[in-house]
UniProtKB/TrEMBL annotation:
Microtubule inner protein component of sperm flagellar doublet microtubules. It is found in: Cytoplasm, Cytoskeleton, Flagellum axoneme. The keyword Cytoplasm applies. The keyword Kinase does not apply. Keywords: Cell projection, Cilium, Coiled coil, Cytoplasm, Cytoskeleton, Flagellum. Belongs to the RIB43A family. It comes from the Eukaryota. This is RIB43A-like with coiled-coils protein 1. Transmembrane segments: none annotated. Its main location: cytoplasm.
């Protein structure tokens, strides 16, 4: 590069100096290990975050102000609507008062074509069905019309009242008749009961008389029949006692009241029992059940010990795994620290190389700054 004595342009010099300063700032940010983050500009991100928070706060304040204004506008609109409704009611009330005071029917002067009562006022109604003034063409007499309806209704009410009183009287008479019939029935039942009591007394007296007569006849027949009767009664009592003794003996010696377990065996299936004859388990069965329970207890104890041993094994394995994980973490920390140290030394070496290159550029390459005249000459020669 040749040295040319050309006066430099102040703006160009300022722009180049600004670019150099920005490049130095960027290099200081990039090559600073403590504050540098790979591919991320923390200060720019923080400034963006602050700007976003400021923008959100501004929007929230605007929305709050807009909500306040909207509430105020709503209140004003409600007040205006109430005022309009009140104004409409007042106007309607004034119009109605004006019509009632100034536009009455008696004060009108024009003829009303749509007055529904004018014909009634011109032609009064008839006074009865035999009024000769109104014929069929007058449309005042209609079939089925009754002017004496009030008198008919009064007559019907009187007739209804009479029929109602008659019904009440009949009901009272029916109640009286029922009471009389109930009283007669009670008297009849009482008489029948008295008659039955008298018949029972007569029957009892006849039975006592018959028994006394039979006893007298037996006494008159002699002591031979009495001895036969006593002997017969004794034999019947003895036979009854023997039957009772045999039944007791059978119950005692039968399988019903014994403790024999063979009674409960099923005649077809020996492995089954009869529930209604079961006397309980035999000693052999109880011994076998106890043996099975003892075997189950031993198996349960062995299973419990195996589970405890397995739990201890799992705990030891978990402890070894935790220790191995701690050792791996320690190795990972050491590798990370070594990597950070190597990266720091590499960054320092890179910074030194960058600095040496920049010094080379500034001291050897960029020693003579081109001026505006140089650029003009270069452009003219290129053209």
């Amino acid at each position: 590069m040749y040295k040319v004595d050309v006066s430099p342009d102040p703006k160009e010099v300022a722009a180049i100096e600004a670019r150099r300063n920005r490049e130095k700032d960027r290099q200081s940010r990039f090559f600073n290990v403590r504050t540098r983050v790979m591919g991320v500009d923390v200060k720019a991100l923080n400034s963006q975050v602050e700007e976003r928070k400021l923008r959100e706060a501004t929007e929230q304040s605007k929305e709050a102000a807009y909500g306040t204004y909207q509430m105020q506008y709503d209140l004003v609109a409600q007040m205006l609507e109430k005022e309009q409704a009140e104004r409409t009611r007042r106007l309607a009330r004034k119009v109605q008062e004006f019509r009632e005071q100034k536009q009455q029917l008696k004060n009108r002067q024009e003829f009303d074509f749509w007055d529904p009562g004018r014909f009634c006022m011109e032609f009064p109604g008839r006074f009865g069905d035999s009024d000769p003034y109104y014929g069929p063409a007058s449309l005042q007499c209609f079939a089925g019309e009754d002017l004496d309806r009030a008198a008919c209704l009064k007559m019907q009410q009187e007739q209804f009242k009479y029929s109602l009183e008659r019904q009440l009287q009949e009901q009272r008479q029916v109640k009286v008749d029922e009471k009389c019939s109930d009283m007669l029935n009670d008297q009849l039942r009482l008489a029948m009961d008295m008659r039955a009591t008298q018949l029972a007394k007569l029957e009892e007296s006849c039975r006592v008389a018959m028994m006394s007569a039979m006893a007298n006849a037996n006494k008159a027949q002699g002591p031979h029949q009495a001895a036969e009767l006593a002997e017969r009664q004794r034999r019947e009592h003895q036979r009854e006692q023997e039957a009772n003794f045999m039944e007791i003996q059978n119950q005692i010696t039968s399988d019903l009241l014994t403790e024999n377990p063979q009674v409960a065996q099923h005649p077809v299936a020996p492995h089954r029992v009869l529930p209604y004859c079961w006397k309980g388990m035999t000693p052999e069965q109880r011994t076998a059940i106890r043996k099975v329970q003892e075997v189950q207890r031993h198996e349960k104890e062995a299973q419990r010990q195996a589970e405890q041993a397995l739990d201890v094994k799992w705990e030891n394995q978990a402890l070894h795994s935790a220790q191995a994980a701690m050792e791996l973490e320690e190795q990972e920390r050491e590798l990370c620290a070594e990597f950070r140290r190597g990266l720091g030394s590499f960054n320092q070496q890179l910074a030194m190389e960058q600095k040496a290159q920049q010094n080379y550029l500034n001291s050897i390459i960029y020693t003579n700054q081109p001026t505006t005249q140089y650029h003009l000459q270069f452009n003219t020669s290129s053209r």
